[in-house]
Each structure stands twice: as structure tokens, then as C-alpha cells.
């Protein structure tokens, strides 16, 4: 059975490939055409299953990594970008929960970072799920990932370098929202109560000690 295109299956998602320049439009359209709805759904399901999400990226890949972190935090998911230079801190964070409860999202394009590859291999070796955003199916991180999304990356044009990756992150975030079940009334009431208590702690004027 042929996979239904994303705009037809989820018409609520505003795919905005037509809004950029010609090169940006081509890059984003190529990325969306190259990733099936099933792959996108598998990625969002990996996000939903994880209790803690870790993002690994280096150099220019840290830009889309930061944007991904921003979008996931806006969805109230527990995630953070790992500092690849702070190895003891990385180990502490990765060891704070059972491996199967975590998710590593590795973001890398050429030149692939040795630290990102090493961390991806480590997480895969301990049984932590791995998802990858990269440029080729034979990318070193894709070999360790259960779910891989491929992005058209224009390395020589820095303005357009990560247009497709940012667009893909937006698509994932919106797809996650549209496929998430609505919270129960009990969950909503509990959340509202916690918000009120949290806000009340900061409502009084600051006083010196």
C-alpha cells in the first residue's frame, strides 16, 4: 500500500515549503518528500515513549539542535542538549534513569563529529533508543538509530544550510501535537492547580534577607 502524503493525511499541518526562497523551497520539499508519514510518526512515537530526551549535536548542528530543544520544551517534554565537552556531566545525565526510559536524538551532518558518533554508539550499546536527524542513510549515527529522518542540507550556503531541518522540526512538533491524546479532566485540573501554586510562590514582593 502506497504511503499517503503528509499534507493529505494531516491537512491541519501547514507545510510552508512555498514560503522560502527557491533554494529553501527545494531543500524543504526534498526533505518532506524523502520522509514518509510512517517515519515521521515513528519519530513522534519515540518522543512520546521517552521519559527524558537528550539531544547531541556539534558545531553548526547545534543551531537546529537548539531549535529542536525549544520546540520540545514548548510541548512540555523533558529534554536537554548535552554538552559534548563535559563528559562526566553527560554520563551523570544519561545514567540518571534506566536506558530504556531515555531517548537520544543525534543531529549531525558532514563533517560528522567524533563525539556525537561516540555518544550515539554508547547509547545504542546500553539499550537507549536512538533517533537521528542526518543527511544520508549511511551516516554513522543512522547506523545506530532505530528511527532516522533525512534532511537535505546545503553546506556551502550558510543561509540555507538548515532550512530543511528546521522545517522538519516544526513538522514533527505539529504532528506530535495533532496525534497526542487530549488530557483527561483530572490531569487538566491537577495541572491547573500546580500552575496556581507555582505562580503564587512568586506573587509576593521580594524581601531582603
SSE diagram, text form:
Elements: H1 6-9, H2 22-34, H3 37-49, E1 52-56, H4 62-74, E2 79-81, H5 87-94, E3 102-108, H6 114-125, E4 130-134, E5 147-150, H7 163-179, H8 185-201
Parallel strand pairs: 1-2, 1-3, 3-4, 4-5
Helix pairs in contact: 2-7, 3-7, 4-7
Order of helices and strands: HHHEHEHEHEEHH
- Secondary-structure-based class equals alpha/beta
The largest sheet has its strands arranged as 2-1-3-4-5
Radius of gyration over C-alpha positions, nearest whole angstrom: 19 Å
- What's the helical proportion of residues? 40-55%
Biggest pleated-sheet summary: 5 strands, parallel
Number of strands: 5
Between the first and last Cα atoms, what is the distance in angstroms? 68 Å
Provide a count of the helices. Answer: 8
